[in-house]
Design a protein that fits this description.
The protein has about 160 residues and is an alpha+beta fold. Helix content is about 40%, strand content about 30%. It has a 4-stranded antiparallel sheet. The radius of gyration is 17 Å and the shape is globular.
Length: about 160
């Protein structure tokens, strides 16, 4: 048998890569009361997920910005949310949208934006075999859809975080 795994290591691998189905964003995103209403950006968070079409990993960096509306979230909660929701069989486009939607629902900001840039093993090792190809997905919600200056400030903050 080609994929025989007598010790169960293959099953353990896929359980680890898909543990996010048990995640509850409401339990992860604990909030604190705050009068702060300025842009908050958390950037450079690494993520990895599993492509549902090819069962291969994709990985990259994610950035999240939000404008609070009476509540802020603990800094560690944002990477926890990303780690939890990315541990499923999900395409990058849906992953980024689900993170933005969960954040809007459970934190209730005036708006949020999530950006992910990732490289996909399915593109690197099969078909076109282009290992350097990356994909960027940007999902704005709330005030980020109406106020281009907020999107510009978000992108500037990410760039400052890289330098």
């Amino acid at each position: 048998m080609l994929f025989r795994s007598e010790d169960g290591s293959l099953a353990r691998l896929y359980r680890e890569l898909t543990h996010g189905y048990h995640a509850n964003p409401a339990e992860i995103l604990k909030t604190f009361t705050s009068p702060h209403r300025e842009l908050v950006v958390v950037s450079g968070m690494s993520f990895q997920s599993l492509c549902p079409h090819h069962m291969l990993i994709y990985r990259g960096r994610m950035h999240l910005g939000y404008v609070p509306d009476g509540k802020i979230v603990g800094l560690s909660k944002i990477p926890r949310l990303i780690r939890a929701l990315s541990a499923r069989l999900i395409v990058q486009e849906e992953l980024v949208a689900e993170i933005a939607d969960a954040f809007m629902e459970h934190v209730g900001p005036l708006g949020c934006v999530v950006q992910a840039s990732g490289t996909h093993d399915c593109v690197a090792v099969r078909g076109v075999r282009s290992a350097e190809t990356s994909m960027t997905t940007v999902v704005p919600r709330g005030v980020f859809q109406d106020q281009p200056q907020l999107m510009e400030e978000f992108h500037r903050s990410i760039a400052r975080g890289r330098s």
